[in-house]
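Key result, reporting period 2: structure in, sequence out.
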């Protein structure tokens, strides 16, 4: 059966209540799910197979007084049974599109240098590794839009 990629909205709470084992770190809480989906700055793209959530990417878009909006990617996860099938790329691309809709100039995510699967995933969707040599934490940035009115599309943390 085909896997559907869907960006959830308020009203889609029941979808997250049916997740495959090991997709989320903890059991999905109905009240937290309602709060998350009701917040217009929180976003989650899911991969659904036969009504079961088998993967997701979540993030938050935010604004700053002197920079264009950015999309921080909080987490990407897939059921062990659904890894190495392109689903991580698919949910990330759906989240990037959400960022573009919200005029985000860049998306970014942090990962540990020891997380080889995450590093491979982020590189495969065009992520630019902004890490300093020797640092354990890596930041990948993903350009989403041209610089526009702010004159720069610097990544998070750049001055």
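The corresponding designed sequence is given below.
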């Amino acid at each position: 059966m085909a896997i559907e990629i869907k960006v959830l909205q308020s009203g889609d709470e029941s979808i997250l209540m049916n997740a495959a084992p090991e997709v989320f770190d903890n059991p999905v809480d109905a009240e937290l799910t309602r709060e998350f989906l009701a917040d217009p700055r929180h976003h989650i793209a899911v991969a659904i197979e036969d009504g079961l959530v088998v993967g997701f990417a979540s993030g938050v878009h935010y604004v700053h007084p002197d920079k264009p909006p950015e999309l921080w990617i909080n987490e990407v996860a897939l059921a062990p049974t659904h890894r190495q099938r392109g689903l991580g790329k698919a949910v990330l691309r759906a989240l990037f599109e959400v960022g573009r809709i919200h005029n985000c100039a860049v998306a970014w995510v942090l990962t540990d240098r020891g997380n080889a699967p995450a590093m491979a995933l982020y590189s495969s969707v065009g992520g630019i590794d902004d890490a300093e040599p020797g640092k354990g934490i890596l930041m990948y940035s993903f350009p989403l839009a041209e610089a526009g009115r702010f004159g720069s599309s610097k990544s998070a943390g750049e001055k």
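Strands lie at 4-7, 42-49, 52-64, 67-78, 106-112, 128-129, 137-143. The helical segments are 13-16, 30-38, 87-101, 116-124. This case is discussed further under Risks and Mitigation.
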